[in-house]
Write a structure and sequence with these properties.
Length: 482
């Protein structure tokens, strides 16, 4: 007797509601949050800084893709006595200031946003606007707004006022850029980050910075071919880079028809290259694994000459058809992001890829004390449906030892961003801490912040902080304890 056909999963999201979460926040706010459900943890004291595109239109023209929106920093200040203050400020990049005065787009966006005037107005204008919209890096003296296509912008960490473009004391010379995914050495607290100089062969610059964001070491390696690398993984001795099998056809970009990212071409017949860069300089080692596309890594470690990397991977590059506005995209038809484990024998070169989760997930994190070590727990945002691609609507905790998952969904009316893990001070359990996750509540028409006990994700939020406005879906952030 034939097995019964699988039953379709009921979709618990609404396209119109999801798109409402992309409403620009045109005002800069500063207020104490007075609409709080539940109880704030007494030991949660510090500031959550979040970065993401906040302004998605100018002069009646929408960005082609949200990733082209101007960067906006949000700060949630937890006082420790049950009060939370919310602030948001735009990063006043040179492009933001000029376009605010002009009331229209003056520069092209990497993901397809064009200046008014058609291809003639855009042809051979190869200077993309630094939008400083992806992540942050903190020191007591300055907060860096990061965007991988250019230099960081420094802000005052207390007021969020923009100080200006920052070349890190001259370490970022010329057109050198600074990526948006720093990682931190669990032993020293040093920050490690990179920058890519693209070309027929690409140069990876690896930077080590101290607690004051001073560059203390810098090393360079050349890798053959075009390298589109968004993130990397950190072990005790290496920085691990996945060079996705993509190439670029620059002609449509040069002639003003497409954005740079719209010119990427995925090559499924080529392997993904895995580069191990010695953190203190030396010979690069390169391995291969099956073709895929990786935006974000969870963690990596090396034991007994075997490299293990957990990553969020796509079977193919999740591209949009050139010229397609993001509000028109059929997300169900785009490749889903799933949790994979890659293992590579560093002696033989043998590699293996294993899918750990079928559900679409993104924005992973682990306990900072497990960076570069085997980890038991990983936390990430998830789609509500167990299969297929869909908007992110919840949070998931995954036990790598047992395969256990704990999930909580805000469906049907909630849509989420990255869950930031905050360890409980003094606790020894790997999942002892809190998950802070931005949520757009379509029923209220506003955004907010949900706070979970990371040991009991399925139990739902301990507290929900409701804001007065919509904050467009952001990208990455960092919690700084007091």
């Amino acid at each position: 007797m034939a097995a019964p056909a699988p039953q379709p999963t009921t979709r618990r999201w609404n396209r119109a509601d999801w798109l409402r979460g992309y409403t620009s926040l045109t005002e800069e706010r500063d207020y104490w949050i007075d609409d709080i459900e539940g109880n704030l943890p007494a030991d949660l004291c510090g500031t959550l800084y979040r970065n993401g595109p906040g302004l998605l239109e100018r002069g009646g023209q929408s960005v082609q893709h949200p990733f082209d929106g101007d960067g906006m920093i949000c700060a949630f200040d937890f006082t420790g006595d049950g009060r939370v203050r919310f602030r948001n400020r735009y990063v006043r990049t040179a492009g933001f200031i000029a376009e605010s005065k002009a009331g229209r787009f003056l520069q092209r966006g990497v993901f397809g946003t064009q200046k008014p005037g058609g291809w003639l107005a855009n042809a051979f204008d190869l200077q993309a606007k630094n939008i400083a919209n992806t992540n942050v890096a903190y020191s007591p003296k300055k907060l860096l707004a990061l965007w991988e296509g250019g230099k960081p912008y420094a802000l005052d960490p207390q007021t969020l006022e923009t100080i200006g473009e920052d070349d890190l004391g001259g370490a970022l010379a010329g057109n050198a850029n600074f990526a948006a995914h720093p990682h931190y050495d669990r032993r020293t607290g040093e920050m490690v980050n990179f920058g890519i100089e693209p070309g027929l062969s690409s140069t990876i610059n690896l930077y080590t910075l101290d607690a004051n964001l001073n560059v203390t070491a810098q090393h360079r390696w050349e890798v053959p071919g075009f390298a589109f690398i968004h993130d990397f993984a950190l072990t005790d001795d290496y920085a691990v880079f996945f060079q996705n099998p993509v190439t670029v056809n620059p002609l449509p970009y040069w002639f003003g028809f497409r954005g740079a990212a719209e010119c990427l071409v995925f090559q499924p017949d080529r392997p993904t290259k895995v580069h191990l860069l010695p953190r203190h300089g030396g010979r690069m080692r390169t391995y291969e694994t099956v073709a895929c596309f990786v935006f974000h890594h969870v963690n990596a470690h090396i034991a007994d000459d075997v490299l293990t990397v957990d990553s969020i991977a796509y079977e193919t590059f999740p591209s949009l058809e050139p010229g397609t506005m993001y509000r028109q995209v059929e997300i169900e038809k785009i490749a889903a992001s799933q949790l994979f484990r890659f293992t590579i024998n560093l002696k033989t070169g043998a590699s293996r890829r294993e899918r750990l989760l079928e559900r679409a997930v993104e924005f992973p994190s682990v306990h900072p004390a497990r960076v570069g070590l085997p980890h038991r727990w990983a936390f990430m945002a998830m789609a509500d449906a167990p299969t297929g691609n869909a908007p992110l609507q919840g949070v998931l905790a995954y036990n790598t030892h047992t395969g256990e998952t704990q999930t909580y969904s805000f469906a049907p009316g909630g849509y989420v961003g990255e869950p930031v893990f905050v360890p409980t001070p003094g606790a020894t359990e790997e999942n002892a801490g809190y998950l802070l996750q931005m949520v757009f509540d379509a029923r209220r028409g506003t955004s907010g912040l949900a706070i979970f006990d990371a040991r009991n994700v399925a139990g739902g939020p301990l507290a929900r902080l409701h804001l007065r406005d919509t904050v467009p879906y952001g990208l990455h952030g960092q919690f700084v304890a007091k």
